[in-house]
Amino acid sequence: MSAIETQDTCQAELAPYLDNLRHQRMLSPHTVSNYARDLSELHSMAQAGNIALGAVTHFQIRKFAAQLHAKGLNARSIARKLSAWRGYYDWLSEQGDLKSNPVDGVKAPKKSKPLPKALAADDAVQLVSQANPLKDTAATAQRCNRAMFELLYSSGLRVSELVGLDLRYHQDGAHQSLGWIDFDSNEVTVTGKGNKMRSVPVGQPAMNALAEWLPARTELVAKHAQADQHALFLSERGNRMSARVAQLRLKAHGQALGMATNMHPHVLRHSFASHVLQSSGDLRAVQEMLGHASISATQVYTSLDFQRLAQVYDAAHPRAKKQTPK
Question: Whose CA is closest to 86, among 75, 76, 98, 96?
Answer without folding.
Answer: 98
